[in-house]
Amino acid sequence: MNEDSEILLPVVVATIVVILFCVVMLIKGTGPEIYKVSVIVSDSNSGRWVPFKAGLEQAANDNNIELNYVHTEYLDNIYTEAEIINEEISRGADGIIAEFCLSDGVDDLVASIGARVPIQFVVTDVIADADVSGNHATVAPDNYAIGRAVGNELVIDYGEKLSDIKIGIISGNQNQLGMQQRLEGFIDSTKKMKPDIVWTVAETRYTREELDKAFANEPADIVIGLDNNSLETAVDRLSGENDGNVKFYGSGCSEKLVYYIDSGKIDSMILPNEFSMGYQSMSDLAIKLQNRTSQLVSKEIDYNVVHRENLFGEDNEQILFPIVK
Amino acid sequence: MDEYVSEKQLNKAPGAPVDEKEAIERERLAELCLIKAKKTLKRYMPRNIQGTILMTFTIVSFTLLLLLGVVLYTLFARRMRTSSIEATEQLMEQSVVNLEDYLESMRRISDAMYYDVIKSSDISKDSIDNEMKLIYKAHKDNLVSFSLFKQDGSLVSASPIAEVKSNLYVPSQQWFNTALSKDEDLHFSTPHVENLFLDPGYGYSWVVSLSRAVDLIENNELTKGVLLVDMNYSTIKEMMERINQDSTGQYVYLTNTSGNIIYHPKQMQINYEIMNENNINEAHYSDGMHEEVFRGEKRQVIVKSISYTGWKLIAVLPDSAYSIDISNLRFVVILLVASALLIMIFINRIISSRISRPLNLLNNSIKNMENGDMYPEDIYVGGTQEVEHLGRTLRHSIERINQLMDDIVIKQEEKRKSEMDALQSQINPHFLYNTLDSIVWMIEGGHNKDAVFMVTQLASLFRISLSRGKNIITIEQEIRHAENYMNIQKVRYKNGFGVVFDVDEEVKKYATIKLIIQPILENAIYYGVGDMDPDDGGEIRIHAWYEPYNSGNDTEVSIGTVKHDDSALRDESGISEGDIYIEVMDNGYGMPPEVCENLLNEDNDTKNVVPKHGSGVGLVNVHNRIRLRFGEQYGLFAESEPDEGTRITIHIPAILFNEDNQKLLESGHYRTLSNKKR
Questions:
Q1: What is the pLDDT of residues A211-264, one digit of tens each?
Q2: Fold entry, domain B400-677
Q3: Could you say which of 3.40.50.2300, 3.40.50.1860, 3.30.1490.180, 3.30.450.20 is the CATH number of the domain covering B86-334?
Q4: Domain regions of chain B by residue span
Q5: How far apart (Å, rounded) are the C-alpha atoms in residues A169 and A202?
Q6: Which of the residues A46, A323, A324 would you substitute to probe the B interface, choosing the one with the greatest number of B C-beta atoms within 10 Å?
Q7: Which of B203, B268, B335 is nearest residue A21 as measured by Cβ atoms?
Q8: Which residue from A56, A122, A269, B254 could staple onto B263, CB 3.0 to 4.6 Å apart?
Q9: Among B157, B92, B76, B164, residue whose Cα is nearest residue B124
Q10: Contact status, residue B618 vs residue B610, Cβ threshold 8 Å
């Protein structure tokens, strides 16, 4: 070894080591990777999503996630929704949280999205192939139980008189498995009382017109809204009907519905813990993103029964009016 | 050795209890491990001076840098922690002032309403709506509502004017009862959703209620009432959020006296039990800094009380909050230490190289010296003063050794010469007597011509022998000397044997030591053909030839083949042009191989294994003289077969005879020169 190489070798080694160290430090210095998660729900600015969004934001904040809450109009077309999701993925979304407007026949879409990014379904489950890789799961309330709870409220309030009462149902988006389950749960719980269900209107873009038509054809004494929008629409359209004697029951969580309860327009409402739904779905997705080998697991969230008397009780207050940083 | 001792110890205790055996076994294993570690260490320990210096310097540098790094890291980390605590304390001081200002302003609103409006009004006659509205408008950013209730819970006045909830029963509300139960104080509630009025805009606000019992004048009678100021919670929230911008993990929250949370950055998570807070205990801490361990995490808690309310502003600094900054600091320190270490290694390498280079060069000189390279000018002299001194001393020593060696050569040569001279002086009278006797006999017999020939030969013999005192003569002269000698001897032996000189012409111009053929011829006569009958055809043959260096490796001689490794034998002095071989061959009695083998052995020579008579100038003498003068690769080579004859080959370098070469050879430096060139 000549003298030049004796001096050059340590210089080269030293430089390489220092460069490597700087690179490691640079990578380490930037801290943990920030993942992007896009959330796609129908009519994103609706008041019903306030607690859900609060949960999402808290979990995103806790888990160092960049939340992209996508602005949407009313979604009733799965292709439009798929397009939005694909666009979000192409923009760099690492994970998706979505409320699918269609639950059946979406196997290919779910497989396609799941192959690229993990996806959390909220509000309602979807019918899809078994997910071996744990790339998709659902965080939603037990929709059948919510349907039953709505029915039970009627049974508690009216008992056997229910058979003499005409009931109209706005059953939410019946393309969603969750809404089908709620309707099923409601019917099952009131079956014994043999209520007279005079009409059932599924939620579409023309719910209001159909509702007006149905009510005009056959006025109902009690109108059930199985989801937030259905219940709001029911109260908005029908609270003045029948001399203001139409009773409203259902499920929801918006401040508008709270006002309706507070003002005595809604007798009872099932309140899914949507803050939990948002927090849980985002937290689980964050864990999945931070550890690719982990699997997403479906989880159920709980619900409370809200009426005028317990509206401002401590538990319900937290769910209905989340304090968000 | 150690292994052997351990083995011995183990074997010593065959009857020992199991525990003792296990202990011995453990001890043995430990010793083996130690030996192995020592061996490994020894293997990887540098053994040269540069490596040792480099390693020593590097270890010292690394230790110092590590120490420096640890000290720096500790100091900076401590300083960062202290700074962080100080910054938080300052932030809290400021926040407390801001919160107190805000609460004080709320209190002033309440006071203004109470002392300026309510106390001076009879609610049965005077409307206080306008005053209330004015005050509300002036502070509406911080207020949600402003209302006055009678003791029975009925509303006297409120601003902004809104629809009171139909099912509202004010006396059941906590703020109402608290105000009436302690009527001299102002009471701040925990945050809650305002639920007195219906907002057609479906708005629900989080508020903190400031309630106080007030004296109302109704129909000139003093009654009790409650004045309620619903402060906008978002104002407090925003104030708290501003001081919770830190992303390191430290946070500040607000509780009431009992520890109920008024604001917490993770309030929802606490409500949903996703995380926990030690709020109940911490609210009871005195103002100042406290250390606690909560859920396994060590953290520091700074508590400040807020006047008027008894609220507590609590800052939590978990250990993990420092970890990001400290981790970055750790990286910086490690990078600095690593860079410094690398620079130190580089510098150490240069220093060690500078220190060790002269020593290495000196060492290389000594290695060359060990290989026989004894040239003083090749000894490195340089480097530091000490090394330079060593080099100089060594160079002087080599010069001295060389001088001594040359002196020895010269002395040896002189000794040989004097020996030869002594021997020659011993034989000369006998040889001279016999020769002169033969000449007398020739003259008496009338063989004058023969006598003249003999005298001429004798004269020539002595002239060459003398050679004006020189030892180096031409081969031509040496051959002539041999011819003179053989001519005399032939006369003496009455031509009892034949002599053939077969000498290449080109050989004659080269130089040789004088009197190297004559002793061999003398031996050939005495031990070979001298005593043979003339009829037996005794003959002495002298053959001389020259072989240049590029003439091939094998030299054919008359008996067998002598293989010379040209590269080994080659004289690279630059003076020699090749090899000269002079072969003296007789067909006399010869000698057994064991005698022949010892012919050139000096010990045997001294022990007189080979019987000598006549001249007594042995082959050993010639052999040694050639080697002394020309080097070890030259000399004589003897071959003999009983009843077949003897052949002695003289091998000398082919050095042209001229004045310079003669001087060089005479001085005895030729050998030194040729060794050096090689």
A1: 999 998 999 999 999 999 999 999 998 887 777 788 999 999 998 998 899 888
A2: Heat Shock Protein 90 (3.30.565)
A3: 3.30.450.20
A4: 2-45, 86-334, 400-677
A5: 8
A6: A323
A7: B335
A8: B254
A9: B157
A10: yes
